[in-house]
Automatic annotation (TrEMBL):
Pfam families: SRP54, SRP54_N, SRP_SPB. PANTHER family: SIGNAL RECOGNITION PARTICLE 54K PROTEIN SRP54 (PTHR11564), SIGNAL RECOGNITION PARTICLE SUBUNIT SRP54 (PTHR11564:SF5). It catalyses: GTP + H2O = GDP + phosphate + H(+). Its EC number is 3.6.5.4. GO terms for biological process: SRP-dependent cotranslational protein targeting to membrane. One of its GO terms (molecular function) is GTP binding. Residues 98-275 form the AAA+ ATPase domain. This is Signal recognition particle 54 kDa protein. It comes from Candidatus Nitrosotenuis cloacae. It is an enzyme of class 3 (hydrolase). Part of the signal recognition particle protein translocation system, which is composed of SRP and FtsY. Archaeal SRP consists of a 7S RNA molecule of 300 nucleotides and two protein subunits: SRP54 and SRP19.
Length: 441
């Protein structure tokens, strides 16, 4: 993703890290390198200059806080400035106990139908029950593509192949799903341009029928700075609650797309990072910048730690951190990792692991994790509390109860013991060491 920007920024940071001392000349050179990297990623020149000037000014004038070296402080300033360029953190949350209706809008060719399928899978994996309405009546094959995209996730798509009345299809679709107890309804609409009056009128009509809780504008990341005018035009027609940027994996203009979209005031909520149905993620400016600078997905690790603190009781935390965790704790950790999103996305964001695990291996791991959850659920309370009790006969019974062969139960036990051993070895320094490796300490 944004390889040129990533390479340029990391090369600039390397000069700072490998220098014997920090002086004014080195700081000016860093600011100049950052400016060039941002311009190569199609960031608007005034924004790029502002980042470079702020970086130079703050690096020369600010005193590092106690315990932070000057080098680390300069990298932190760069991190803050880049994150600020890409907008504020997204705090949107779907409302529980009601149907959340999400309208997807966008220019023709922005990848809206593909993104609808990806978003359906992403939300399903987060535990939401999702339905989809296909209301693109202009593009031949749109409904077939949408159904194909959603089929793998087990998400039902409502559409009417020969009906050209898009607002009517939406109305019928909402009636169709009325008794399905859904959490989220995604509505795919026809791609349009700002001058297409008929399509703009149709969009307003669909908006009235739907009364959406969220309107998401899908933008092609390869168009760079032009995203600003596109987002602004849609914003004037329908209040856009969030933006999804697609095709960031192949774009040299991705930085411009992100910066321009953020400048409209509508938050970038999701980004498409590849062609696989799993290649969609929640967008976080701080998380994104951490990865650009080679710091790993800092925010994901902090989020995980925060959830562990909030959701786990003190006894569990003490067991896990001291290497005395039981199978209940291991199951809890599997559940936590699954909340982050796809396992591939989680591994890609972790320092030192990105790119090391092959795609087919990740899919095998995801399948295996699913099996393990069934196997653990087949254990008795006593066995979960003390997995050392699991002898041959107990393993046979658990295998039979879970529907998986005995070697899968043994594989789970092996991984549980490995994880327990790693926790024990890291006792007392896990999170601190983890953050240090990511350049935060």
């Amino acid at each position: 993703m944004l390889d040129n920007l990533k390479t340029g920024l990391r090369a600039a940071i390397k000069k700072i890290v490998s220098s014997s001392g920090i002086d004014e000349e080195l700081i000016k050179q860093l600011a100049n390198d950052v400016l060039k990297s941002l311009l190569s990623a199609d960031v608007k020149i005034d924004l790029a200059i502002r980042i470079a000037e702020n970086l130079k000014k703050r690096s020369l004038e600010e005193t590092p806080p106690p315990g932070l070296s000057r080098k680390d402080h300069i990298i932190k300033i760069l991190y803050d400035e880049l994150a600020g360029l890409l907008g504020k953190e997204n705090d949107f949350a779907f409302k529980p106990g009601k149907l959340n209706k999400v309208l997807l809008l966008g220019i023709q060719g922005s990848g809206k139908t593909t993104i609808t399928g990806k978003l359906a899978k992403f939300l399903t994996k987060q535990g939401y029950k999702v339905g989809v309405i296909g209301a693109d009546t202009y593009r031949p094959g749109a409904l077939v593509q949408l159904k194909t995209n959603c089929e793998k996730s087990g998400v039902e798509v409502y559409g009417e192949e020969n009906n050209k009345d898009a607002p009517g299809i939406v109305k019928n679709g909402l009636k169709h799903f009325a008794n399905h107890a859904l959490d989220i309804m995604l509505i795919d609409t026809a791609g349009r341009h700002k001058e297409e009056k008929d399509l703009l009128d149709e969009m307003k009509e669909i908006g009235k029928v739907t009364d959406p809780d969220l309107a998401l504008l899908v933008i092609d990341g390869t168009i760079g700075q032009q995203c600003y005018h596109q987002a602004e035009s849609f914003h004037k027609t329908v209040p856009v609650g969030g933006i999804i940027i697609t095709k960031l994996d192949s774009s040299a203009k991705g930085g411009g797309a992100l910066a321009a979209s953020a400048a409209t005031g509508a938050k970038v909520m999701y980004i498409g990072t590849g062609e696989r149905v799993d290649d969609l993620e929640l967008f976080s400016p701080t998380r994104f910048v951490g990865r650009l600078l080679g710091m790993g997905d800092i925010q994901a690790v902090l989020d995980l730690a925060k959830r562990l603190e909030n959701e786990a009781d003190d006894v569990r935390l003490k067991r896990i951190s001291s290497g005395k965790m039981n199978m209940d704790d291991f199951y809890f950790q599997l559940e936590e990792v699954s909340k982050v999103g796809s396992l591939k996305g989680f591994l890609d964001n972790m320092p030192g692991l990105s790119g090391m695990v092959k795609e087919d291996q990740v899919e095998q791991m995801e399948t295996r994790v699913q099996r393990w959850r069934y196997i653990i659920q087949s254990m008795s309370k006593t066995e979960k509390a003390d997995p050392d009790l699991l002898n041959a006969s107990r393993i046979k019974r658990i295998a039979r109860g879970s529907g998986w062969p005995e070697h899968e139960v043994k594989e789970l036990l092996k991984n549980y013991k490995n994880s327990k051993g790693m926790m024990k070895a890291a006792k007392g320094r896990q999170m601190q060491g983890f953050l240090r490796k990511m350049g935060m300490g």
